[in-house]
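Troubleshooting entry. The earlier prediction with calcium ion gave an output that would not parse, so I re-checked the input for stray whitespace and re-submitted. Clean input:
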Amino acid sequence: MRILIVEDELKTGDYLKQGLCEAGFNVTLARNGLDGFHLAMTESFALLILDVMLPDVSGLRIVQSIREAGNMTPVLFLSALDTVDDRVRGLELGADDYLVKPFAFNELLARARTLLRRGASQPAVQRLQISDLVLDLGKRQALRQGKKITLTQKEFALLELLMRREGEVLPRSLIASQIWDMNFDSDTNVIDVAIRRLRGKIDDDFSQKLIHTVRGMGYKIEAPLSDDSN
Ligand code: CA
């Protein structure tokens, strides 16, 4: 089983890697947040062990990003910050467990094994569905009336964000920060353009429109009230 460790402290990283290798795991060690983030997004692991305090991309940020991308790999946080706020924040962002430094290796191993067992028994596929539109997060696939729709990564992320918050009006500023990781600048129409493209793919060929513009506020996705399939 492959485990990714992201830890910038040299000694801790080496110690964890060695211990987990000896316990029979296939371990990849990233020494900074950016490498860790890249590995977590592009390769497949059974468990991620993330240090919270990393000099570039924090462990919190990594877990937030991979969860937003639909990656449900179990995450164990390591942190010296033993405050309730940090624990709650980490768990809210999608970490599965939290271990405060310093910790005994046996404790880490026990927690890791628990998460791996839990991860293995969880259904791997997660689906979001609104009316006849299905977003398969496991296969990274969108379907409308059973027909496959090809989306870019950004379009997929945008649709996922809208679908996870079905019926809720999402301001452009929120979409900008979540999908483009940028502060919203009212001069840019990048979001309107992206929404138009997404509509072209999921709504234009169908009588039932799902994406709605709420003038002056933003966008939402919602099935019409009367569920008349004609
Ligand atoms: Ca650190």
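This one parsed fine. DSSP finds eight helices and eleven strands in the chain.
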